[in-house]
Structure formats: structure tokens, C-alpha cells
Amino acid sequence: MDGINCPTSIGSWFELSVETEADDHTDPTASPLLHFGAEVRLERERLGISRHDLAAKALCSYSLVAKIEAGDRVPPREFAEACDRLFPHSGGRFVRLWPLALRYAFPPWFRAYVELETKATAVRFFSLALLPGLVQTEDYARAVLRTGRTTGLDDLVTARMARQRILTRERPARLWLVVAASALRATVGGPEVMRGQLNRLRELAEVPTNRVQILDDAKHHGFHSPFGILSFADGASDVVHVDGFPRGYLLAEEGDVEQARDAYDLLAAMAWSPNDSPDVIDSIMKDLS
Questions:
Q1: How far apart are CA 195 and CA 187, in angstroms?
Q2: Half-sphere exposure of residue 242, counting CA atoms within 13 Å on the CB side?
Q3: Is the pLDDT of residue 112 over 70?
Q4: Which long-range contacts (CB under 8 A, 24 or more apart) does 185-192 make?
Q5: Angle separating helix axes 153-163 and 138-147, nearest 10 degrees
Q6: What pLDDT is attached to residue 149?
Q7: Distances (CA, A) of 133 to 27, 37, 127
Q8: How many Cα atoms sit within 13 Å of 60 on the Cβ side?
Q9: Which candidate, 273, 242, 12, places its Cα nearest to that of 133?
């Protein structure tokens, strides 16, 4: 892992843009997204199932089924699971194809980070102006990504929500978040969206294996960039992500990683205790108009 310096980005409002390569939509081998859609259509038609029926079973719209089959939308995992339930001989094929289709939602420069994040056993983030993507609600994420006027907004939101599965899988990654109070006070998407986001953060703070700490805005002036640290099982080295414009970057050299650990320890020491976080979040929520 030494020497990695790969452009990527986690939570910034200018973050991602879906690839817009000119794929041949008549060729199902042109991309994993087109292959997934073609497999759904072939299996559905072979069994004589209408798009309306598939939409009803997958709890989604007819138009979403049509776009997935055309390779124009990234499928949610729940859609892949519904296909495996509905198509009797799929043998779990669609859930196995789903990660490849999802990967296509991220630009090439972000994929290395996503793959590392999926394997992480612990994630630590320091955030300033916004909450990181890994803890965002769908409405908050949509408001953040819309601000950057990105293309493929629905796919980007789907992909961001899918990343959060590492927090709910059978062996969830441990989350430690140190976030500036200003990020909680910023009314992203309006009061109702922000209220939902703060409730989500409070729920995460109550999970025994998580650590959520709020940092007073007067105490972090020496730290100007959001950053995160990914840790792995089996003694693999930590990797650091630093957010920035227009893209962030990954660092794996031991000196950089050690410096990031020291900075994170200092920020955590300056922040309020994890036990205080729910009360702090409740207090900020009361101020929402």
C-alpha cells in the first residue's frame, strides 16, 4: 500500500460525477451497468413477467425498471435482491452482479477509495462544514450533491447510500466521527432535511461500537481539511483520505498515516465526550426553525 496517492473524494459538496462515456447501448458487454440491465430484461422476458409486475415486486416505479434495463440507472441493492427472489433460477446472480453495476456509478478516480472503504473494519472521519457521505441521509445527500450541479444525481445518491452498508453488514465497520458543531448547525436542504439528518446522527451516536464527538467551532482553527482514516483487519496498514478541491487524495506512507493519527487524537481530545453527543445534537435540533 506504500506510495498510494490516488485522487478521490468523500463528502465534499462538489464530490462526484457519474461517468458519461459514450457506451454503445445496443452492446450489453460495453459496461457492467448495461450487462446488469440486459440480464434483467432477458430473464424477465423469458419468464413472461411485465415491467409493471417487476416494479411492484421490487417496490419501485415502472420508469426505474425501464431505465435499469436500458443501462441508464444504477440499481439499488434491493432491486437486485427482488430480482433474485422473483426469477426462480437466478441463484443469487443479480446480487453478485450488483457490486459491478454499482461501481460504474463512481468515476474511475474514486473507485480505489470505495474498494478500500468496503474492506475497512473501522473508519474515522473529521468533518468541518458537512457531514461525511457515510452518515448522510438520502435527503441530505441529495441536497448536498444537487448544490454541486452534478450530472446523474439519482445514481450518485444511490451509490452514496450503498456505501453505508458497511455500517449495517453482519460485521459492521466501527465508526468514529469528530464533527465541527457548525456542520450540525448548517441548514442543508431546509429544516426538515436537517432534522432528519440530525436524528440519523443521534442514532449512530447511540450505537455502542460507534463514537460520535462534536467539536466546538472555536477549537479547530489549526485544521483546515476534512480527512478520514480507514483501518483494516489482519494487521494491514491504515490508509488516510484527505478531502480537497477539486478532488481529495489517499495517503498510505507510514509518516503521513502517523501524522493523521496524531491529528485525529488531538481533535478527539478537544471535542466533547461521546456520551455528551446526544444532548448536544438535541440542543442544536431545538434551534432549527
A1: 9
A2: 18
A3: yes
A4: 185/284, 185/287, 186/129, 186/130, 187/288, 188/130, 188/140, 188/143, 188/144, 189/139, 189/140, 189/142, 189/143, 189/144, 190/143, 191/288, 191/289
A5: 130
A6: 67
A7: 33, 27, 10
A8: 21
A9: 12
CATH of 7-15+107-286, one of 3.30.460, 3.30.870, 3.40.1350, 3.40.50: 3.30.870
Tell me the per-residue pLDDT of 208-235, one tens digit each, with 9 for 90 and over. 999 999 999 887 777 778 999 999 998 8
Q: For residues 223 and 176, which has the higher predicted lDDT (pLDDT)?
A: 176
**Domain 32-103: which CATH number of 2.40.160.20, 1.10.260.40, 1.10.10.60, 1.10.3720.10:** 1.10.260.40
Given a cut of 80, whether residue 263 has pLDDT beyond it is yes
pTM: 0.81
Amino acid residing at 204: L
**pLDDT for 133-162, tens place per residue?**
999 999 999 999 998 767 789 999 999 999
3-state secondary structure of 161: helix
Read off the amino acid at residue 100: L
Beta-bridge mates of residue 241: 228, 250
CA dist 70 and 40 (Å) reads 10
Nearest-angstrom CA–CA distance, 268 and 148: 30
Query: What is the model's pLDDT at position 190?
Result: 94
